[in-house]
Structure formats: C-alpha cells, structure tokens
Design goal:
Blueprint (H helix, E strand, L loop, with lengths): L2 E9 L2 E9 L5 E5 L5 E7 L5 E3 L7 H6 L7 E2 L5 E2 L3 E4 L2 E4 L8 E2 L12 E7 L2 E10 L10 E9 L4 E10 L3 E2 L3 E2 L17 E4 L1 E7 L5 E7 L11 E2 L9 H6 L3 E6 L7 E7 L5 E7 L3 E5 L7 E2 L5 E2 L6 E5 L14 E2 L4 E12 L3
C-alpha cells in the first residue's frame, strides 16, 4: 500500500487522522488532517540510512499545544500584517492581533489549528493527499468565504510537492505556506548551523520593529544575508548587524530571483555529515528564512528536545505585510479568481 491511514483522535467532534505516503524508493511522508500538518519525512543519507528530517510531536496534543507552527499550513495570511489591519478597495479590515499589535500566521486560530477534510489520491507521479478547508466570511477578521485546497504529492523521484489553491466569494487577501522545521541530519540531531545554504536571492526585505518590513528591498551583497554561494547557516549569525539583532538571527524574507509565478530554484541546503541535500523550487515571490531562534526546550518526537536553532524553516510565500505595502507583489484575491502556488522539495545526496 502506498497510503496508510491512522486514527489520531477527535477535535470539535471531527475525526483527526494521519496519512503516510510511501513512494517506490522507500521514502515516506506523513501528513495529518489537523492543520494539514507535515508530521514527518523520512529520506536516506549518502549511505542509504533513512531518517526523519522534520521536527514534530508524537501526538495530536503536542501540535494543539504548540505555538511554533511545526509543519503546519499557514493561512489565511502567512507571516505578519502590521497593526493587524489592512485596507482593500477603501475599506479597512481589522484582524486578530496575536503578536503584540500585529497579526501573525492567520491569527489566533489559523489554518494550522483547524481540521481539514482529507482525500487520498493515487497518481502516476506518486501517492498524494488532497486537503480541503473552508474559512468563513469574517474568520479572524478576513473578508470573504475562502475555499482552500492543499495537495501533497510524494513523487517517486523523491520530490515532495505542495500545491496550494484557493477561491473566494468576496475580494480578500491570501498568502499560504508550509511551516516545516528541517534538520537534514535528522529531527533529533541538534544544531542546524553547519548546514550549507544557498538562496537564489539578490535582495532581502529590511525589517523594522516587530519584524514588519520597512518596504526596502536591500541588496544582500556585503551583508550577512548573502547566501548566493554555499555558506553555513551559522557562519555570520554573530556578526554585528542591525538586521540580525532585529530578528534575533535570521527571520527575514528574501526576494527570489526570476519571474514571479514561474517555477524556479529558490534554495539548496546540504548537510555535510549525512550528505542529504534539499533543493527547493517555487512559484512564490519570496522565501522566509527562519533559524529557529525561539525554539527552546521543546519536547518533540521520540523524546527529542528541540533547542534553539535545531531546525530551520524555508517558507515560500509572499512578503510580510504585503496588503499594506503597495510596492510588493499583490496578495489580493478577487472574487471568482483563483490563487495558486507550487513548491517542490527535491531530496538527493551529495558525494563525499
């Protein structure tokens, strides 16, 4: 069997299940209907040893109690909206303020905290899981009834594809992503600071107080944000840099090279000990690099403890606060139109 379903519990009278996808090469991905959450991804190292490279919890209670968004689908709006408000067509919409005065990751009860309807699929590329959620008009302050579908496909060539789509009956804003924390040495392996990172981005979004963008897209050249060539994630974290102080490390959005909407390379990460390689491509305009700055003594899977900087996030998405930043690509979704975004995670190994 390429898709195995398992009961996880019940929430708000709705059954919660996990679905394990198996490809032809022995790679597995486990996804829960709660939060459309990526629970695990088990891939081989250069010696053929399989390990889970996604941080997470052993049970539903762990995900329900966490404020770190481990593995969840984030919406309606991933990242931050300044002042928990935006104006669309002259009308101001006030959102839930759940991060100081600002709105973060969809609000108090974002898409990572709801039960999605799940439908397993067999495709020629590999097993897939389609997840659906309807967010009602006024949910966390957003206008319009939003119908969302997220499809995970575990391809037989060791690619985990995530495809996002949404429609609305009223003009609104949308920005969806997955918030997986990766550690290519294994979810319990400790620090991620030796991972070698390449980001295909010549500019990053300068952040002000509360990590709200100022609107400036600054060249990475000559800064600790230059990952155009392979660099250990931790190589410059101690640099005397105002932006690193603002983010308490990397918690910044990078403007990806190439045409927005076209599938193009976004990032490449190599873990030198295991040889595991993650190559990311996306249609999204930006990528949020987060170095797990606020993880701390989190009790994870199989007794693991996730300390600060034991996982990193590569969140493909729109820029933070885009509804209030007219120079950024628009996140407005008009009634009758379709939101669509694709991100591919390709896993290979590097030679010694």
């Amino acid at each position: 069997m390429t898709i195995v379903e398992r009961e996880l519990g019940e929430l708000d009278g709705r059954r919660v299940a996990s679905f394990t996808l198996h490809n032809a090469r022995g790679v597995t991905a486990q996804i829960a209907s709660y939060g459309a959450t990526l629970l695990s991804l088990v891939v081989p190292d250069r010696d053929g040893v399989f390990s889970d490279v996604v941080l997470g919890f052993d049970d539903l209670a762990g995900y329900r109690g966490s404020r770190s968004y481990l593995g969840g689908i984030i919406g309606r709006y991933a990242n931050r909206i300044a002042g928990a408000r935006f104006t669309l067509d002259g009308v101001e919409h006030r959102l839930a303020a759940n991060h100081g005065p600002n709105h973060l990751h969809g609000g108090v009860r974002g898409f990572d905290k709801v039960v999605w309807r799940a439908a397993p699929r067999e495709t020629p590329e590999g097993p897939a899981l389609a997840l659906h959620h309807v967010s009602p008009d006024g949910d966390e302050g957003y206008p319009g009834t939003l119908s969302v579908e997220v499809v995970y496909t575990l391809r037989h060539d060791d690619v985990l594809a995530i495809e996002y789509s949404a429609t609305t009956d009223r003009d609104t804003v949308v920005n969806l992503t997955n918030h997986a924390y990766w550690n290519l040495a294994g979810h319990a392996a400790g620090s991620i600071l030796d991972h070698q990172l390449v980001l295909h981005a010549e500019r990053f979004a300068v952040a002000g107080p509360g990590l709200i963008p100022t609107g400036e897209l600054r060249p990475v050249a000559g800064t600790p944000f230059d990952f155009r060539t392979a660099t250990p994630i931790g190589a410059r974290l101690a640099a005397d840099d105002e932006q690193l102080r603002v983010g308490e490390g990397y918690d910044h959005s990078f403007a990806l090279d190439g045409a927005v909407g076209a599938l193009r390379p976004a990032a490449r990460v190599v873990e030198p000990t295991s040889g595991r390689v993650l190559e990311l491509s996306t249609t999204a305009p930006a990528l949020q690099l987060y170095t797990g700055n606020h993880l701390g003594a989190t009790r994870g899977k199989a007794g693991a403890t996730y300390a600060r900087r034991t996982g990193f996030c590569l969140e493909t998405q729109h820029f933070p606060d885009s509804p209030n930043q007219p120079a950024f690509p628009t996140t407005t979704l008009r009634a009758g139109a379709r939101y669509h975004s694709t991100t591919l995670h390709r896993f290979t190994v590097a030679a010694r």
